[in-house]
Design a protein that fits this description.
- By secondary structure, this protein is an alpha+beta fold.
- It is 24% helix and 28% strand.
- Strand 9 and strand 10 form a beta hairpin.
- Helix 2 crosses helix 8.
- The longest helix has 19 residues.
- The radius of gyration is 22 Å and the shape is elongated.
- The protein binds flavin-adenine dinucleotide.
């Protein structure tokens, strides 16, 4: 075992978007920060790689829009600091059957959060969106200005660059296999003699005053391992299920390519049907549009099939044919990319102190359930505040606690149907 004698203020484990935003924030606060990643930086085996993520403020839960709007500012601040763009604005278009509870909840959540929206019937949608989306009479559309596309791999790279610029140390090919509370042998001069020891598979040991675990789909496995030694709080099994999912790109019919671009006013969109389908304008690959299903199949993060889902494909073909008619080739996608979700039973995040023997010294942030990317900058700030001051500022975290699952496997109660079944 190689012992690093330095004491870090914060060690962040996992360099996806959440870990990279956290390391940036702690470094920016002048804290000595170490970010450890098990694979190469910017790898494609987790959840934060690829070419596009939607940013939208339309959520049926009332607690997300505020976080999205705050994040939108932080995305722009980071862009200004680094000097290039990762966030491309457009409007957001939500659609679904007018009696769909989740869509009705979204409308009321926007109203409560003072997010200006326009609710349109199928004729108005046809007019307003220049005949792009064909809705049946029983469907409505909801338009608002807070949509857009974020480029994920570029965004992770941006926050890692900014973390380094602010003094953080970043190390890849460092798989963390254990996190312990140990006597630090006086490394930690300002505090008591106990600190957090982070051990990697290749035999390195790093000391930290605080540790933030942001390991995506590996969260349940790592937390189980770390708490299995039988210390103070005993074994913790977080209800975070990895799902394997696929992103699909479809060919726009010749002559219509420009109509699907942001410059032509094409929005990011979500369809509240069965299944929930989402998409982004034609941006990253010319002449193609991304349309995919929210959800996937359970997997072990290290034993994936990487294969597309036949069920999702058949639903997508039908949806594209009914909504875009002759404008998009619906017989099959032309490009696919594999990715992973980390699902919680209520699709809400887990952001909390690990507790037990680790008390407030180890934090976990995971279970982002296929919708966390847009909020990564605020999540990084929350985690930095929790690591530095033990409390978050101007944000309510009760919906994200580990405790919500105690004696209640479903977590937060919701008065609308699940998005992922
Ligand atoms: C197909 C798809 C589409 C999505 N669309 C959207 C969208 O439109 N809008 C949106 O807001 N969100 C979206 N999301 C969700 C969003 O991408 C995720 O919520 C987010 O990327 C999660 O980031 P993370 O940092 O938690 O996880 P990850 O990116 O997986 O990062 C975790 C990192 O930890 C590392 N790690 C794991 N174990 C260890 C260990 N033991 N030691 C060291 N390192 C370790 C991993 O290698 C990985 O790099 C989508 C996700 C997918 C898959």
């Amino acid at each position: 075992m190689e012992n690093c004698n330095e004491m870090f203020d914060v060690i962040v484990v996992g360099a996806g978007i959440m870990g990279s935003c956290t390391a940036y924030q702690t470094a920016k606060h002048g804290k000595k920060t170490l970010l450890l990643e098990q694979f190469d930086f910017l790898h494609h085996r987790g959840s934060s790689h690829g070419e596009s993520r939607t940013i939208r403020a339309t959520y049926p839960e009332e607690y997300y829009p505020k976080m999205v709007l705050e994040s939108a500012k932080l995305w722009e601040e980071a862009e200004a600091e680094v000097g290039y763009k990762v966030y491309f604005k457009t409007s957001q278009f939500d659609m679904g059957p007018s009696n769909k509870k989740a869509l009705q909840a979204t409308i009321s959540s926007c109203q409560k959060n003072k997010i200006p929206i326009r609710v349109l019937d199928h004729n108005q949608v046809h007019k307003e969106l220049l005949g792009k989306f064909r809705l049946t009479e029983d469907w409505i559309g909801v338009v608002n200005e807070y949509g857009g596309v974020i480029k994920p791999t570029k965004a992770v790279s941006m926050f890692q660059t900014l973390a380094i610029k602010n003094g953080a140390r970043l190390m890849d090919n460092m798989e963390v296999v254990d996190i312990l509370k140990e006597d630090d042998g006086n490394h930690n001069e300002d505090d008591d003699a106990v600190a957090v020891l982070v051990c990697t598979r290749n035999g390195q040991r790093f000391w930290g005053k605080k540790c933030v675990v942001t390991v995506g789909a590996w969260m349940k496995k790592l937390v189980k391992k770390v708490t299995s030694a039988g210390g103070g709080g005993g074994l913790i099994t977080l209800p975070i299920q990895p799902l394997e999912t696929t992103v699909y790109y479809w060919k726009i019919k010749p002559g219509h390519e420009d109509e699907f671009k942001i410059e032509s006013g094409f929005p990011t969109f979500a369809s509240y049907g069965e299944p929930y389908i989402y998409g982004t304008p034609s941006l990253e690959f010319p002449g193609m549009i991304k349309i995919a299903v929210h959800g996937g199949r359970p997997c072990e993060p290290d034993e994936r099939t990487w294969a597309a889902s036949a069920v999702a494909l058949s639903a997508l073909r039908e949806w594209i044919q009914s909504k875009f008619g002759d404008l998009v080739e619906s017989s099959g996608p032309v490009l696919t990319q594999s990715c992973m979700y980390s699902m919680t039973p209520d699709e809400d995040f887990v952001i909390d102190f690990l507790g037990g023997e680790f008390g407030k010294d180890v934090l976990v942030a995971g279970g982002f359930s296929g919708h966390g990317f847009k909020m990564a900058p605020i999540i990084g700030r929350i985690l930095a505040d929790l690591a530095i001051d033990n409390q978050a500022k101007n944000v309510e975290l009760k919906h994200f606690s580990i405790k919500r699952f105690e004696g209640n496997s479903k977590g937060n109660a919701k008065d609308f149907d699940d998005q992922v079944n």
